[in-house]
Amino acid sequence: MPASRYNTIAAGAEAIGEFEDRRSRFIASLRHVEGEEQAAAHLAEIRALHHDARHNVPAWILADGRERCSDDGEPQRTAGMPALEVLRGAGLADVSVVVTRYFGGTLLGPGGLVRAYTAAVQEAVAAARRDGLVVEKCLVVPVVVQIPYSAYDRVTRMIADAGGKVKDSLFAEDVQLTCAFHAGDEGPFMAALREFAAGDELARAGEPRFSDF
Fold first, then answer.
1. Segments in 34-98 forming alpha helices (H)
2. Residue 193 needs a FRET pair 20 to 30 A away by CA distance; which of 5, 92, 185, 200 works?
């Protein structure tokens, strides 16, 4: 079961981190992705951009718990896994990182490679935090409320008191409010609204989804 909230990188943004050791350059590109296809596209783009590099090492984590990494020709567990561990340690999900290595002519050894790939991704995460690119996603339940005009003030107070937010209002014969609640908060609100309406169902809840709140 995924967590009810997690941190990710803002959609469309990219954070870059660089590390150098004995003339080998490690360049980490960190982005938001929403599935394996987007992670694969990120890797393909970086490979095309750095087609002359020795290695392009990918790692990604999705909010549903899936994760993957590859050493891309580096010694086993010296590249992809260290990159993945940094993403885990940073508490990020729905993210992809690709670390490009330009070989500097000196072998770094397994320990040196682990340190270098770790440092490059840590630099990218630090850059994302510094630039305000890390955002929180919450499990949100949309609720649509249909009420008479006379109940508008009372119901909007009830929404706020339950921790919800009105995202959109449509004024026609009645008032339709499109609201958002953190998952679990919609139940008490709908029960209170049912009591207020003497048993009538004035609200319907949609499927929970991850989004900004």
1. 36-49, 80-89
2. 5
